[in-house]
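User: Thanks for the earlier help. One more: Glycosyltransferase. Can you show the sequence and predicted structure together?

Assistant: Of course, both are below.
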Amino acid sequence: MTYKSTLFSVHPLDPYGSKVGGIETHVRQLLKYCPPDMRLVLIGVDDSGKRKLGELTEVELYGGRFLFMPIMHCQHEAVNSAAKSLFQSTTLRFFVNFIRFSGRIRALAKEMPSSFDIQRYEFSWLCRLFGFDYVLTTHGDANPDQPMDSLLSRYWFLHKFNEKHAVHGAQHVYSVNQQQTDRIRADYPKAAAKTDFMTVSVDDQLFKPTPYLQLDGPLKVAFVGRLDTFKRPGMMFKVIAELARQTDDQVEFHYVGAAKPHSFAEFSSIAHLSTCHGFKTSADVAKLWPQWHMGIVTSVFEGMPVYVLEALCAGRPVCSVNLPQLSLVIDNDVNGAVLTANEDSEQIVQQLAQQMLQYWQKIRSGQLQPEVVSQMVAPYKASNQMQVLFGRHQQLHSDNGDVVTQS
């Protein structure tokens, strides 16, 4: 195969593994939608502990073809949990191992015009150290006063320091919500012209609207992703419990992800109404949405939750606490609800449950159609947005670089 350029995707992800989240979905879509004349190299991790580090192998996965170089072995139990100390940080260990294998990576980068796609501010230092051009996608603002599982709450000053230098050093910056885009432009005026808003993408080859099923049975509410503290799992479970109270237990809660909801005290009251599906690939999740009716969001903050885009693209309404960016894809009169407040009081629990019951009635009465629910997601389909990102990288690649033929 003849390649014109190379795109390096740098993230502690095992393409065969079970790590979930918005960034992981973004990386997997890079692997799937990469143009055939662009060589994509994933610099990632090996969860199995069996692959040789620093060795480049060709992989066909997610409908795409790419090269994979693991630079670190990562314990399976750690991939979906937050580090409790700096030295347990997967990001820090990954950073160190990148330097360890930098000679091999630099050699690959010199073979043809190349650029790097990064999601973590910390990895910008690696690109700047070795002179690599990079495009930065940042996945949402947090606040040190908000509940977080990660080390950010204790090392906030380091996060802001890394952000500043990552933004200034990037050839281009994308943010997944408009509020953060505006904030970055205001905080770093010299980078304003190269900073754009672009949400995470929904894989429209997988997620398609389908008819609502089993309307004479219980309301089936689903959540897909990690159960980080900032997502307020306890509040989510309280909303399900309130739905159960108001419907005489005619509700089911479906959780997809590698976390353990039983570790939250609030889950005990809805455990008998719940199904934990464990980790599933995007293709698996797409097959599950036709069985469900609705999604729920209780997060303190988010970027643009890919789970929400997938639910809506599948024709399922989503009800959420107030996250301003969701107004781009949710109309309160059409395909879900975004409340005016974002807190975890009993009043908000009641309001969220009431909105969900109102949409359940619309579904059962035929007032709501899956195709209508999905319409607002159209601008954020991967088939459109990923090409914009690849086009940005292609602009960075030299027009007169050597073309490499690789079988």
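User: Great, one quick takeaway?

Assistant: The CA atoms of residues 1 and 406 lie 5 Å apart.
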